[in-house]
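Inverse folding, one chain.
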Protein backbone atom coordinates (compact mmCIF):
# COMPACT_ATOMS: atom_id res chain seq x y z
CA UNK A 1 0.00 0.00 0.00
CA UNK A 2 3.00 2.25 -0.33
CA UNK A 3 2.15 5.64 -1.83
CA UNK A 4 -1.59 5.08 -1.37
CA UNK A 5 -3.80 7.96 -0.23
CA UNK A 6 -4.74 6.85 3.27
CA UNK A 7 -7.89 9.01 3.52
CA UNK A 8 -11.25 7.44 2.77
CA UNK A 9 -14.84 8.45 3.27
CA UNK A 10 -15.99 4.91 4.10
CA UNK A 11 -14.05 1.80 5.07
CA UNK A 12 -15.74 -1.61 4.94
CA UNK A 13 -14.11 -4.48 6.85
CA UNK A 14 -14.89 -7.93 5.43
CA UNK A 15 -15.39 -9.17 1.88
CA UNK A 16 -18.39 -11.43 2.42
CA UNK A 17 -21.93 -10.82 1.19
CA UNK A 18 -22.52 -7.91 3.58
CA UNK A 19 -19.18 -6.31 2.73
CA UNK A 20 -19.80 -6.58 -1.02
CA UNK A 21 -23.14 -4.74 -0.84
CA UNK A 22 -21.87 -2.17 1.66
CA UNK A 23 -18.76 -1.24 -0.32
CA UNK A 24 -20.50 -1.14 -3.72
CA UNK A 25 -23.37 1.01 -2.42
CA UNK A 26 -21.01 3.47 -0.75
CA UNK A 27 -18.79 3.80 -3.84
CA UNK A 28 -21.74 4.14 -6.21
CA UNK A 29 -23.11 6.94 -4.04
CA UNK A 30 -19.92 8.90 -4.67
CA UNK A 31 -17.90 8.11 -1.55
CA UNK A 32 -14.24 7.20 -1.68
CA UNK A 33 -14.44 3.68 -0.28
CA UNK A 34 -11.99 1.00 0.86
CA UNK A 35 -12.81 -2.69 1.31
CA UNK A 36 -10.41 -4.26 3.81
CA UNK A 37 -10.17 -8.05 3.60
CA UNK A 38 -7.74 -10.68 4.82
CA UNK A 39 -7.88 -12.39 1.40
CA UNK A 40 -9.15 -10.67 -1.78
CA UNK A 41 -9.46 -14.13 -3.36
CA UNK A 42 -12.16 -14.93 -0.77
CA UNK A 43 -14.46 -12.03 -1.74
CA UNK A 44 -17.97 -13.42 -2.18
CA UNK A 45 -16.94 -16.92 -1.14
CA UNK A 46 -19.95 -19.10 -0.36
CA UNK A 47 -18.96 -20.54 3.02
CA UNK A 48 -21.79 -23.04 3.22
CA UNK A 49 -24.41 -23.96 0.61
CA UNK A 50 -23.65 -22.56 -2.87
CA UNK A 51 -27.23 -21.29 -3.21
CA UNK A 52 -29.02 -17.94 -3.16
CA UNK A 53 -32.62 -17.33 -2.12
CA UNK A 54 -35.20 -19.72 -0.74
CA UNK A 55 -38.30 -19.16 1.37
CA UNK A 56 -38.36 -15.45 2.33
CA UNK A 57 -34.65 -15.22 1.54
CA UNK A 58 -35.59 -14.88 -2.12
CA UNK A 59 -37.74 -11.90 -1.17
CA UNK A 60 -34.69 -10.29 0.42
CA UNK A 61 -32.62 -10.78 -2.74
CA UNK A 62 -35.29 -9.19 -4.95
CA UNK A 63 -35.51 -6.24 -2.53
CA UNK A 64 -31.74 -5.84 -2.55
CA UNK A 65 -31.90 -5.76 -6.33
CA UNK A 66 -34.77 -3.25 -6.39
CA UNK A 67 -32.71 -0.90 -4.21
CA UNK A 68 -29.68 -1.18 -6.49
CA UNK A 69 -27.72 -3.99 -4.82
CA UNK A 70 -25.70 -6.69 -6.56
CA UNK A 71 -26.57 -10.12 -5.12
CA UNK A 72 -29.41 -10.86 -7.54
CA UNK A 73 -27.32 -9.98 -10.58
CA UNK A 74 -24.42 -12.20 -9.45
CA UNK A 75 -26.84 -15.06 -8.75
CA UNK A 76 -28.42 -14.70 -12.21
CA UNK A 77 -25.01 -14.68 -13.89
CA UNK A 78 -23.77 -17.84 -12.12
CA UNK A 79 -26.94 -19.82 -11.38
CA UNK A 80 -27.10 -23.44 -12.51
CA UNK A 81 -30.47 -24.55 -11.07
CA UNK A 82 -33.40 -22.13 -10.60
CA UNK A 83 -36.70 -22.97 -8.90
CA UNK A 84 -39.64 -20.93 -7.64
CA UNK A 85 -40.51 -22.48 -4.26
CA UNK A 86 -44.00 -22.84 -2.75
CA UNK A 87 -45.90 -22.45 -6.02
CA UNK A 88 -48.59 -24.78 -4.68
CA UNK A 89 -49.34 -22.18 -1.97
CA UNK A 90 -50.45 -18.57 -2.07
CA UNK A 91 -48.35 -15.88 -3.83
CA UNK A 92 -47.26 -14.31 -0.52
CA UNK A 93 -44.88 -17.23 0.03
CA UNK A 94 -43.63 -17.83 -3.54
CA UNK A 95 -39.88 -17.58 -3.19
CA UNK A 96 -37.14 -17.73 -5.86
CA UNK A 97 -34.06 -19.86 -5.22
CA UNK A 98 -31.06 -20.85 -7.29
CA UNK A 99 -28.12 -23.18 -6.91
CA UNK A 100 -24.90 -21.51 -8.03
CA UNK A 101 -21.55 -22.58 -9.34
CA UNK A 102 -19.55 -21.91 -6.17
CA UNK A 103 -16.25 -20.87 -7.75
CA UNK A 104 -17.93 -18.86 -10.49
CA UNK A 105 -20.04 -16.93 -7.97
CA UNK A 106 -16.97 -15.84 -5.98
CA UNK A 107 -15.07 -14.90 -9.13
CA UNK A 108 -17.99 -12.87 -10.47
CA UNK A 109 -18.51 -11.10 -7.14
CA UNK A 110 -14.80 -10.24 -6.88
CA UNK A 111 -14.73 -8.97 -10.47
CA UNK A 112 -17.61 -6.58 -9.87
CA UNK A 113 -16.00 -5.26 -6.68
CA UNK A 114 -12.56 -4.85 -8.26
CA UNK A 115 -13.96 -3.00 -11.28
CA UNK A 116 -16.09 -0.56 -9.30
CA UNK A 117 -14.97 3.08 -9.65
CA UNK A 118 -14.19 4.75 -6.34
CA UNK A 119 -13.63 1.44 -4.53
CA UNK A 120 -10.17 0.26 -3.42
CA UNK A 121 -9.61 -3.31 -2.20
CA UNK A 122 -6.93 -3.61 0.49
CA UNK A 123 -5.39 -6.87 1.68
CA UNK A 124 -4.86 -6.35 5.40
CA UNK A 125 -6.36 -6.94 8.85
CA UNK A 126 -7.95 -4.45 11.23
CA UNK A 127 -6.06 -4.16 14.52
CA UNK A 128 -7.37 -0.97 16.12
CA UNK A 129 -10.21 1.54 15.92
CA UNK A 130 -9.41 5.25 15.97
CA UNK A 131 -11.93 7.56 17.60
CA UNK A 132 -12.33 11.27 17.96
CA UNK A 133 -14.51 11.62 21.02
CA UNK A 134 -17.38 9.20 20.40
CA UNK A 135 -17.00 9.22 16.62
CA UNK A 136 -15.00 6.99 14.26
CA UNK A 137 -12.01 8.71 12.67
CA UNK A 138 -10.07 5.78 11.22
CA UNK A 139 -8.40 2.41 11.75
CA UNK A 140 -4.97 0.84 12.11
CA UNK A 141 -4.04 -2.36 10.31
CA UNK A 142 -1.74 -5.31 10.88
CA UNK A 143 0.34 -4.06 7.95
CA UNK A 144 1.17 -0.91 9.93
CA UNK A 145 -1.12 1.44 7.99
CA UNK A 146 -3.24 4.18 9.52
CA UNK A 147 -6.34 4.83 7.39
CA UNK A 148 -8.72 7.69 8.10
CA UNK A 149 -12.46 7.52 7.43
CA UNK A 150 -15.74 9.18 8.34
CA UNK A 151 -17.73 5.93 8.43
CA UNK A 152 -16.64 2.38 9.24
CA UNK A 153 -18.73 -0.73 8.52
CA UNK A 154 -17.81 -3.99 10.25
CA UNK A 155 -18.88 -7.09 8.28
CA UNK A 156 -16.87 -9.72 10.11
CA UNK A 157 -19.06 -12.76 9.39
CA UNK A 158 -18.30 -15.83 11.50
CA UNK A 159 -14.64 -14.90 12.06
CA UNK A 160 -14.64 -13.07 15.43
CA UNK A 161 -12.68 -15.31 17.84
CA UNK A 162 -13.96 -18.21 15.76
CA UNK A 163 -13.35 -21.87 16.62
CA UNK A 164 -14.16 -24.83 14.33
CA UNK A 165 -15.29 -28.12 15.90
CA UNK A 166 -15.39 -31.66 14.51
CA UNK A 167 -15.94 -34.31 17.16
CA UNK A 168 -13.36 -33.94 19.90
CA UNK A 169 -10.97 -31.87 17.80
CA UNK A 170 -11.08 -28.08 17.57
CA UNK A 171 -9.07 -25.52 15.66
CA UNK A 172 -9.05 -21.75 15.44
CA UNK A 173 -10.67 -20.47 12.23
CA UNK A 174 -13.81 -18.91 10.83
CA UNK A 175 -14.05 -21.08 7.71
CA UNK A 176 -12.23 -24.15 6.37
CA UNK A 177 -8.62 -23.15 5.67
CA UNK A 178 -9.07 -19.54 6.87
CA UNK A 179 -7.91 -17.95 10.16
CA UNK A 180 -10.10 -16.32 12.77
CA UNK A 181 -10.17 -12.60 13.46
CA UNK A 182 -8.89 -11.84 16.95
CA UNK A 183 -8.78 -8.68 19.01
CA UNK A 184 -11.77 -6.85 17.52
CA UNK A 185 -14.27 -8.23 20.05
CA UNK A 186 -12.07 -7.03 22.89
CA UNK A 187 -11.69 -3.58 21.30
CA UNK A 188 -15.45 -3.20 21.09
CA UNK A 189 -16.19 -4.50 24.58
CA UNK A 190 -13.66 -1.98 25.92
CA UNK A 191 -15.82 0.71 24.32
CA UNK A 192 -18.86 -0.58 26.20
CA UNK A 193 -20.41 -2.97 23.68
CA UNK A 194 -22.04 -6.19 24.88
CA UNK A 195 -21.04 -9.41 23.10
CA UNK A 196 -22.40 -12.95 22.83
CA UNK A 197 -21.58 -16.29 21.27
CA UNK A 198 -23.38 -18.13 18.44
CA UNK A 199 -22.83 -21.25 16.36
CA UNK A 200 -23.34 -22.30 12.77
CA UNK A 201 -22.39 -25.44 10.90
CA UNK A 202 -21.78 -27.04 7.53
CA UNK A 203 -22.20 -30.60 6.19
CA UNK A 204 -19.66 -33.01 4.66
CA UNK A 205 -18.69 -32.73 0.99
CA UNK A 206 -18.70 -35.85 -1.20
CA UNK A 207 -16.96 -36.80 -4.43
CA UNK A 208 -19.48 -36.63 -7.29
CA UNK A 209 -18.29 -39.78 -9.08
CA UNK A 210 -18.66 -41.91 -5.93
CA UNK A 211 -22.45 -41.37 -5.75
CA UNK A 212 -24.95 -43.78 -7.31
CA UNK A 213 -27.21 -41.10 -8.80
CA UNK A 214 -29.62 -43.65 -10.26
CA UNK A 215 -30.81 -44.56 -6.75
CA UNK A 216 -31.74 -40.99 -5.84
CA UNK A 217 -34.72 -38.81 -6.83
CA UNK A 218 -33.99 -36.22 -9.53
CA UNK A 219 -35.05 -32.64 -8.77
CA UNK A 220 -35.35 -30.78 -12.07
CA UNK A 221 -35.01 -26.99 -12.40
CA UNK A 222 -37.84 -24.80 -13.67
CA UNK A 223 -38.26 -24.96 -17.44
CA UNK A 224 -38.43 -21.16 -17.77
CA UNK A 225 -36.40 -19.89 -14.80
CA UNK A 226 -37.26 -16.50 -13.32
CA UNK A 227 -34.27 -14.23 -12.69
CA UNK A 228 -33.67 -12.58 -9.33
CA UNK A 229 -32.76 -9.22 -10.82
CA UNK A 230 -35.37 -6.99 -12.39
CA UNK A 231 -32.56 -5.99 -14.78
CA UNK A 232 -31.90 -9.54 -16.05
CA UNK A 233 -34.00 -10.24 -19.12
CA UNK A 234 -33.53 -14.02 -19.23
CA UNK A 235 -31.46 -16.74 -17.57
CA UNK A 236 -29.07 -17.98 -20.25
CA UNK A 237 -27.07 -20.55 -18.28
CA UNK A 238 -27.49 -24.27 -18.85
CA UNK A 239 -29.59 -25.67 -16.00
CA UNK A 240 -28.75 -28.94 -14.24
CA UNK A 241 -30.65 -31.15 -11.79
CA UNK A 242 -30.20 -31.62 -8.06
CA UNK A 243 -31.04 -34.89 -6.28
CA UNK A 244 -32.96 -36.07 -3.20
CA UNK A 245 -32.41 -39.01 -0.86
CA UNK A 246 -33.19 -39.79 2.80
CA UNK A 247 -31.61 -40.89 6.04
CA UNK A 248 -32.97 -44.06 7.69
CA UNK A 249 -32.98 -45.93 10.99
CA UNK A 250 -29.49 -47.33 10.46
CA UNK A 251 -28.18 -43.83 9.71
CA UNK A 252 -29.68 -42.53 12.94
CA UNK A 253 -28.31 -45.40 15.02
CA UNK A 254 -24.77 -44.77 13.78
CA UNK A 255 -25.05 -41.02 14.33
CA UNK A 256 -26.13 -41.61 17.93
CA UNK A 257 -22.95 -43.60 18.62
CA UNK A 258 -21.04 -40.33 18.28
CA UNK A 259 -23.20 -38.24 20.62
CA UNK A 260 -20.82 -38.77 23.55
CA UNK A 261 -18.03 -37.21 21.43
CA UNK A 262 -20.20 -34.42 20.04
CA UNK A 263 -18.96 -30.91 20.95
CA UNK A 264 -22.59 -29.78 20.98
CA UNK A 265 -23.78 -32.35 23.53
CA UNK A 266 -20.58 -32.43 25.60
CA UNK A 267 -20.81 -28.70 26.28
CA UNK A 268 -17.64 -27.66 24.47
CA UNK A 269 -19.76 -25.50 22.14
CA UNK A 270 -21.34 -22.73 24.21
CA UNK A 271 -22.90 -20.78 21.34
CA UNK A 272 -26.52 -21.34 20.29
CA UNK A 273 -27.13 -22.69 16.78
CA UNK A 274 -29.90 -21.81 14.32
CA UNK A 275 -33.18 -23.49 15.33
CA UNK A 276 -34.52 -23.58 11.78
CA UNK A 277 -31.39 -24.97 10.17
CA UNK A 278 -30.34 -27.56 12.77
CA UNK A 279 -27.51 -30.04 12.57
CA UNK A 280 -28.41 -33.66 11.82
CA UNK A 281 -27.63 -34.63 15.44
CA UNK A 282 -29.91 -31.84 16.68
CA UNK A 283 -32.69 -33.13 14.38
CA UNK A 284 -32.34 -36.63 15.88
CA UNK A 285 -32.41 -35.19 19.38
CA UNK A 286 -35.42 -32.93 18.83
CA UNK A 287 -37.42 -35.13 16.45
CA UNK A 288 -36.71 -38.58 17.85
CA UNK A 289 -39.91 -40.01 16.36
CA UNK A 290 -38.98 -39.16 12.76
CA UNK A 291 -38.02 -42.24 10.75
CA UNK A 292 -36.13 -40.32 8.08
CA UNK A 293 -34.88 -36.86 7.08
CA UNK A 294 -34.47 -35.36 3.62
CA UNK A 295 -30.97 -35.09 2.18
CA UNK A 296 -30.44 -32.97 -0.93
CA UNK A 297 -27.35 -33.74 -3.00
CA UNK A 298 -26.25 -30.52 -4.70
CA UNK A 299 -23.31 -30.44 -7.16
CA UNK A 300 -21.21 -27.32 -6.47
CA UNK A 301 -20.71 -26.40 -10.12
CA UNK A 302 -20.64 -27.49 -13.74
CA UNK A 303 -17.08 -28.78 -13.56
CA UNK A 304 -16.81 -29.38 -9.82
CA UNK A 305 -16.29 -32.87 -8.42
CA UNK A 306 -17.71 -31.73 -5.07
CA UNK A 307 -21.26 -32.40 -3.87
CA UNK A 308 -22.83 -30.46 -0.99
CA UNK A 309 -24.91 -32.69 1.33
CA UNK A 310 -27.76 -30.32 2.22
CA UNK A 311 -29.60 -31.43 5.38
CA UNK A 312 -26.60 -33.19 6.95
CA UNK A 313 -24.90 -30.31 8.77
CA UNK A 314 -22.91 -31.82 11.63
CA UNK A 315 -19.98 -31.52 14.03
CA UNK A 316 -19.89 -35.22 14.95
CA UNK A 317 -16.56 -37.10 14.73
CA UNK A 318 -15.30 -37.67 11.20
CA UNK A 319 -15.43 -41.47 11.44
CA UNK A 320 -19.08 -41.35 12.53
CA UNK A 321 -19.95 -39.00 9.69
CA UNK A 322 -18.34 -41.33 7.13
CA UNK A 323 -20.11 -44.45 8.43
CA UNK A 324 -23.50 -42.73 8.64
CA UNK A 325 -23.24 -41.24 5.15
CA UNK A 326 -22.70 -44.72 3.66
CA UNK A 327 -26.03 -46.00 5.05
CA UNK A 328 -28.00 -43.52 2.91
CA UNK A 329 -29.52 -44.72 -0.36
CA UNK A 330 -27.22 -43.84 -3.25
CA UNK A 331 -24.29 -43.04 -0.94
CA UNK A 332 -23.22 -46.60 -0.05
CA UNK A 333 -19.84 -46.09 -1.76
CA UNK A 334 -19.60 -42.32 -1.26
CA UNK A 335 -16.17 -40.80 -0.72
CA UNK A 336 -16.13 -38.00 1.84
CA UNK A 337 -13.81 -35.21 0.68
CA UNK A 338 -14.25 -33.07 3.77
CA UNK A 339 -16.01 -33.67 7.07
CA UNK A 340 -18.74 -31.37 8.33
CA UNK A 341 -17.89 -29.00 11.17
CA UNK A 342 -19.40 -26.36 13.44
CA UNK A 343 -18.13 -22.79 13.81
CA UNK A 344 -18.52 -20.91 17.08
CA UNK A 345 -18.05 -17.14 16.91
CA UNK A 346 -18.67 -13.81 18.64
CA UNK A 347 -21.54 -11.48 17.74
CA UNK A 348 -22.96 -8.26 19.14
CA UNK A 349 -26.65 -8.32 20.17
CA UNK A 350 -28.31 -5.89 17.74
CA UNK A 351 -30.23 -3.80 20.25
CA UNK A 352 -26.95 -1.85 20.15
CA UNK A 353 -27.64 -0.49 16.62
CA UNK A 354 -30.14 1.95 15.16
CA UNK A 355 -32.43 1.10 12.23
CA UNK A 356 -29.70 2.57 10.00
CA UNK A 357 -27.36 -0.10 11.49
CA UNK A 358 -25.18 2.64 12.96
CA UNK A 359 -24.16 1.74 16.49
CA UNK A 360 -25.70 3.68 19.35
CA UNK A 361 -22.40 4.00 21.22
CA UNK A 362 -20.05 5.20 18.44
CA UNK A 363 -21.07 7.63 15.73
CA UNK A 364 -20.01 6.56 12.23
CA UNK A 365 -19.55 2.90 13.23
CA UNK A 366 -21.92 0.42 11.53
CA UNK A 367 -22.47 -3.32 12.03
CA UNK A 368 -23.77 -5.51 9.19
CA UNK A 369 -24.28 -9.25 8.75
CA UNK A 370 -23.52 -12.04 11.18
CA UNK A 371 -21.94 -9.62 13.63
CA UNK A 372 -25.58 -8.68 14.33
CA UNK A 373 -26.56 -12.28 15.02
CA UNK A 374 -28.10 -13.21 11.66
CA UNK A 375 -27.73 -16.39 9.63
CA UNK A 376 -27.50 -16.56 5.85
CA UNK A 377 -26.01 -14.79 2.84
CA UNK A 378 -29.22 -12.94 2.01
CA UNK A 379 -29.77 -11.51 5.50
CA UNK A 380 -26.14 -10.35 5.51
CA UNK A 381 -26.40 -8.75 2.06
CA UNK A 382 -29.56 -6.85 2.99
CA UNK A 383 -27.89 -5.40 6.07
CA UNK A 384 -24.73 -4.59 4.14
CA UNK A 385 -26.73 -2.58 1.61
CA UNK A 386 -28.54 -0.57 4.30
CA UNK A 387 -25.29 0.05 6.20
CA UNK A 388 -23.47 1.11 3.02
CA UNK A 389 -26.24 3.52 2.06
CA UNK A 390 -26.34 5.10 5.51
CA UNK A 391 -22.57 5.29 5.84
CA UNK A 392 -22.49 7.24 2.56
CA UNK A 393 -25.37 9.46 3.64
CA UNK A 394 -23.57 10.25 6.89
CA UNK A 395 -20.48 11.29 4.94
CA UNK A 396 -22.68 13.55 2.80
CA UNK A 397 -24.48 14.81 5.92
CA UNK A 398 -27.81 13.78 4.42
CA UNK A 399 -30.69 12.33 6.41
CA UNK A 400 -30.79 8.62 7.31
CA UNK A 401 -32.34 5.94 5.11
CA UNK A 402 -34.52 3.35 6.84
CA UNK A 403 -37.16 0.88 5.72
CA UNK A 404 -40.37 0.23 7.64
CA UNK A 405 -41.51 -3.33 8.29
CA UNK A 406 -44.70 -2.38 6.41
CA UNK A 407 -42.77 -1.84 3.16
CA UNK A 408 -40.06 -4.52 2.98
CA UNK A 409 -38.66 -7.76 4.37
CA UNK A 410 -35.40 -5.90 4.95
CA UNK A 411 -37.35 -3.56 7.21
CA UNK A 412 -38.92 -6.52 9.03
CA UNK A 413 -35.50 -8.08 9.58
CA UNK A 414 -33.81 -5.00 11.00
CA UNK A 415 -36.81 -4.11 13.15
CA UNK A 416 -36.91 -7.67 14.54
CA UNK A 417 -33.18 -7.66 15.26
CA UNK A 418 -33.36 -4.45 17.26
CA UNK A 419 -36.60 -5.08 19.15
CA UNK A 420 -36.48 -8.82 19.86
CA UNK A 421 -33.85 -10.68 21.84
CA UNK A 422 -31.32 -12.56 19.68
CA UNK A 423 -30.90 -15.87 21.47
CA UNK A 424 -30.12 -17.80 18.27
CA UNK A 425 -28.98 -16.86 14.75
CA UNK A 426 -31.81 -14.89 13.09
CA UNK A 427 -33.23 -16.31 9.87
CA UNK A 428 -35.84 -14.63 7.70
CA UNK A 429 -39.23 -16.34 7.21
CA UNK A 430 -42.39 -15.17 5.48
CA UNK A 431 -44.24 -15.73 8.78
CA UNK A 432 -42.23 -12.89 10.35
CA UNK A 433 -43.88 -10.35 8.02
CA UNK A 434 -47.40 -9.41 9.09
CA UNK A 435 -48.06 -7.69 5.74
CA UNK A 436 -46.58 -10.47 3.60
CA UNK A 437 -49.33 -10.41 0.95
CA UNK A 438 -48.22 -6.86 0.13
CA UNK A 439 -44.52 -7.68 0.50
CA UNK A 440 -44.39 -10.26 -2.29
CA UNK A 441 -41.25 -11.06 -4.26
CA UNK A 442 -42.90 -10.07 -7.55
CA UNK A 443 -43.63 -6.45 -6.55
CA UNK A 444 -40.31 -5.58 -4.86
CA UNK A 445 -39.54 -3.24 -7.76
CA UNK A 446 -42.73 -1.21 -7.28
CA UNK A 447 -42.15 -1.05 -3.54
CA UNK A 448 -38.50 -0.04 -3.51
CA UNK A 449 -37.03 0.87 -6.90
CA UNK A 450 -37.93 4.56 -6.67
CA UNK A 451 -36.07 4.70 -3.37
CA UNK A 452 -33.03 3.12 -5.02
CA UNK A 453 -33.24 5.64 -7.85
CA UNK A 454 -33.39 8.58 -5.42
CA UNK A 455 -30.18 7.28 -3.80
CA UNK A 456 -28.41 7.09 -7.17
CA UNK A 457 -28.28 3.28 -7.17
CA UNK A 458 -30.93 2.59 -9.85
CA UNK A 459 -30.34 4.00 -13.37
CA UNK A 460 -33.00 6.16 -15.04
CA UNK A 461 -33.70 3.65 -17.83
CA UNK A 462 -34.38 0.90 -15.28
CA UNK A 463 -36.89 3.13 -13.51
CA UNK A 464 -38.56 3.93 -16.83
CA UNK A 465 -38.92 0.19 -17.53
CA UNK A 466 -40.70 -0.17 -14.19
CA UNK A 467 -43.05 2.69 -15.00
CA UNK A 468 -43.94 1.11 -18.35
CA UNK A 469 -44.64 -2.23 -16.66
CA UNK A 470 -46.84 -0.58 -14.04
CA UNK A 471 -48.83 1.15 -16.77
CA UNK A 472 -49.33 -2.17 -18.57
CA UNK A 473 -50.58 -3.70 -15.32
CA UNK A 474 -52.95 -0.77 -14.70
CA UNK A 475 -54.35 -0.90 -18.24
CA UNK A 476 -54.91 -4.66 -18.09
CA UNK A 477 -56.66 -4.38 -14.73
CA UNK A 478 -58.96 -1.64 -16.04
CA UNK A 479 -59.81 -3.89 -18.99
CA UNK A 480 -60.67 -6.78 -16.64
CA UNK A 481 -62.84 -4.55 -14.45
CA UNK A 482 -64.88 -3.29 -17.40
CA UNK A 483 -65.06 -6.14 -19.93
CA UNK A 484 -67.68 -8.90 -19.68
CA UNK A 485 -67.85 -12.40 -21.12
CA UNK A 486 -70.93 -14.36 -22.07
CA UNK A 487 -71.82 -17.79 -20.62
CA UNK A 488 -70.99 -19.32 -24.02
CA UNK A 489 -67.49 -17.77 -23.97
CA UNK A 490 -67.00 -19.00 -20.40
CA UNK A 491 -67.71 -22.55 -21.58
CA UNK A 492 -64.88 -22.23 -24.12
CA UNK A 493 -62.48 -20.88 -21.51
CA UNK A 494 -63.41 -23.54 -18.94
CA UNK A 495 -62.81 -26.42 -21.36
CA UNK A 496 -64.62 -28.72 -18.92
CA UNK A 497 -62.38 -27.82 -15.92
CA UNK A 498 -64.64 -25.47 -13.92
CA UNK A 499 -67.22 -26.83 -11.52
CA UNK A 500 -69.61 -23.88 -11.85
CA UNK A 501 -70.12 -21.86 -15.00
CA UNK A 502 -71.61 -18.34 -15.07
CA UNK A 503 -75.26 -18.25 -16.16
CA UNK A 504 -75.16 -14.64 -17.31
CA UNK A 505 -72.63 -12.11 -18.56
CA UNK A 506 -69.88 -11.63 -15.96
CA UNK A 507 -67.04 -9.15 -15.49
CA UNK A 508 -63.67 -10.69 -16.27
CA UNK A 509 -62.26 -9.48 -12.96
CA UNK A 510 -65.07 -11.19 -11.05
CA UNK A 511 -64.52 -14.37 -13.03
CA UNK A 512 -60.77 -14.27 -12.34
CA UNK A 513 -61.41 -14.07 -8.59
CA UNK A 514 -62.76 -17.61 -8.67
CA UNK A 515 -60.12 -20.03 -7.27
CA UNK A 516 -60.36 -22.38 -10.27
CA UNK A 517 -59.95 -19.64 -12.90
CA UNK A 518 -56.55 -18.44 -14.08
CA UNK A 519 -55.54 -15.50 -16.23
CA UNK A 520 -54.29 -18.04 -18.79
CA UNK A 521 -57.88 -19.30 -19.07
CA UNK A 522 -59.09 -15.80 -19.86
CA UNK A 523 -56.30 -15.14 -22.35
CA UNK A 524 -57.25 -18.34 -24.20
CA UNK A 525 -60.27 -16.55 -25.68
CA UNK A 526 -59.12 -14.99 -29.00
CA UNK A 527 -61.42 -11.97 -28.65
CA UNK A 528 -59.68 -11.00 -25.42
CA UNK A 529 -56.00 -11.36 -26.24
CA UNK A 530 -56.53 -9.57 -29.54
CA UNK A 531 -56.91 -6.45 -27.40
CA UNK A 532 -53.49 -4.73 -27.07
CA UNK A 533 -53.91 -4.31 -23.31
CA UNK A 534 -54.26 -8.05 -22.83
CA UNK A 535 -52.04 -9.36 -25.63
CA UNK A 536 -48.93 -7.74 -24.18
CA UNK A 537 -49.39 -9.87 -21.05
CA UNK A 538 -48.57 -12.95 -23.12
CA UNK A 539 -44.98 -11.74 -23.50
CA UNK A 540 -44.53 -9.92 -20.16
CA UNK A 541 -44.50 -12.60 -17.46
CA UNK A 542 -43.94 -10.21 -14.57
CA UNK A 543 -46.84 -7.97 -15.60
CA UNK A 544 -49.11 -10.99 -16.18
CA UNK A 545 -48.29 -12.38 -12.74
CA UNK A 546 -48.90 -9.01 -11.08
CA UNK A 547 -52.28 -8.56 -12.80
CA UNK A 548 -53.50 -11.98 -11.72
CA UNK A 549 -52.38 -11.65 -8.09
CA UNK A 550 -53.70 -8.13 -7.60
CA UNK A 551 -57.05 -9.01 -9.15
CA UNK A 552 -57.55 -12.29 -7.29
CA UNK A 553 -56.49 -10.95 -3.89
CA UNK A 554 -57.86 -7.42 -4.18
CA UNK A 555 -59.98 -7.65 -1.01
CA UNK A 556 -57.14 -9.03 1.10
CA UNK A 557 -54.71 -6.44 -0.24
CA UNK A 558 -57.12 -3.63 0.62
CA UNK A 559 -57.42 -4.96 4.17
CA UNK A 560 -53.64 -5.04 4.60
CA UNK A 561 -53.37 -1.46 3.33
CA UNK A 562 -55.85 -0.44 6.05
CA UNK A 563 -53.78 -2.27 8.68
CA UNK A 564 -50.67 -0.45 7.50
CA UNK A 565 -52.43 2.90 7.94
CA UNK A 566 -52.97 2.05 11.62
CA UNK A 567 -49.37 0.85 11.90
CA UNK A 568 -48.13 4.16 10.49
CA UNK A 569 -50.20 6.14 13.00
CA UNK A 570 -48.35 4.46 15.86
CA UNK A 571 -45.01 5.00 14.10
CA UNK A 572 -45.76 8.74 13.96
CA UNK A 573 -46.12 8.98 17.75
CA UNK A 574 -42.50 9.93 18.39
CA UNK A 575 -40.61 9.27 21.62
CA UNK A 576 -38.11 12.06 22.39
CA UNK A 577 -34.45 11.06 22.28
CA UNK A 578 -33.14 10.61 25.81
CA UNK A 579 -36.59 9.81 27.26
CA UNK A 580 -36.12 8.37 30.76
CA UNK A 581 -38.10 5.14 30.75
CA UNK A 582 -36.52 4.04 34.04
CA UNK A 583 -38.06 7.07 35.73
CA UNK A 584 -41.64 6.10 34.85
CA UNK A 585 -42.77 4.33 38.04
CA UNK A 586 -45.95 2.81 36.66
CA UNK A 587 -44.17 0.82 33.92
CA UNK A 588 -43.55 -2.87 34.61
CA UNK A 589 -40.01 -3.73 35.68
CA UNK A 590 -39.38 -5.78 32.54
CA UNK A 591 -40.89 -3.03 30.40
CA UNK A 592 -38.58 -0.43 31.96
CA UNK A 593 -35.51 -2.62 31.42
CA UNK A 594 -36.31 -3.42 27.78
CA UNK A 595 -37.34 0.12 26.88
CA UNK A 596 -34.28 1.65 28.52
CA UNK A 597 -31.98 -0.81 26.74
CA UNK A 598 -33.44 -0.47 23.24
CA UNK A 599 -34.56 3.20 23.46
CA UNK A 600 -37.38 3.05 20.87
CA UNK A 601 -37.97 6.11 18.70
CA UNK A 602 -41.76 5.69 18.38
CA UNK A 603 -44.73 4.17 20.14
CA UNK A 604 -45.00 1.70 17.28
CA UNK A 605 -41.46 0.48 17.85
CA UNK A 606 -42.09 0.23 21.59
CA UNK A 607 -45.11 -2.00 20.89
CA UNK A 608 -42.86 -4.54 19.14
CA UNK A 609 -40.33 -4.94 21.94
CA UNK A 610 -40.52 -8.34 23.62
CA UNK A 611 -41.53 -7.88 27.27
CA UNK A 612 -43.36 -4.56 26.86
CA UNK A 613 -46.99 -5.15 27.89
CA UNK A 614 -50.20 -3.51 26.56
CA UNK A 615 -50.46 -1.74 29.93
CA UNK A 616 -46.95 -0.32 29.45
CA UNK A 617 -47.98 0.99 26.03
CA UNK A 618 -51.10 2.66 27.43
CA UNK A 619 -49.00 4.43 30.05
CA UNK A 620 -46.52 5.57 27.42
CA UNK A 621 -49.32 6.82 25.17
CA UNK A 622 -50.74 9.00 27.96
CA UNK A 623 -47.31 10.43 28.78
CA UNK A 624 -46.46 11.14 25.15
CA UNK A 625 -49.79 12.81 24.40
CA UNK A 626 -49.24 15.12 27.36
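Residues assigned per position:
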Amino acid sequence: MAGMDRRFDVIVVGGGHAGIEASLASARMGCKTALLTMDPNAIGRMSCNPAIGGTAKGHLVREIDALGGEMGKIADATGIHFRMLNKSKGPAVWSPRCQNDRDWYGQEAARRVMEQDGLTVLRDTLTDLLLQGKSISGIRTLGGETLSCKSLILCSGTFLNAVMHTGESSSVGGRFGEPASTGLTEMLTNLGFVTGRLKTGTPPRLRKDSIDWGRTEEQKPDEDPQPFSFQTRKIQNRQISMYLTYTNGETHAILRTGFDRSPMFSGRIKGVGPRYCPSIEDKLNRFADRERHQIFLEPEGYDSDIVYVNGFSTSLPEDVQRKAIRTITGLEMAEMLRAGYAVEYDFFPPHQVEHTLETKLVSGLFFAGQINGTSGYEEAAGQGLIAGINAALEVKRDGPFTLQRSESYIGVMIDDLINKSTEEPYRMFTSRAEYRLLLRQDNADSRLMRKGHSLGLIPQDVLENLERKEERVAEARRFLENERVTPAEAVLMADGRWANLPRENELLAQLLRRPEVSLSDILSLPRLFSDERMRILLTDREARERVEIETKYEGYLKRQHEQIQQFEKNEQVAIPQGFDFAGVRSLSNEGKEKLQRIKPRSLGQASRIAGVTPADLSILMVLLLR
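The chain has four domains: 10-199+345-454, 205-221+238-341, 460-557, 572-625. The chain is about 35% helix and 15% strand.
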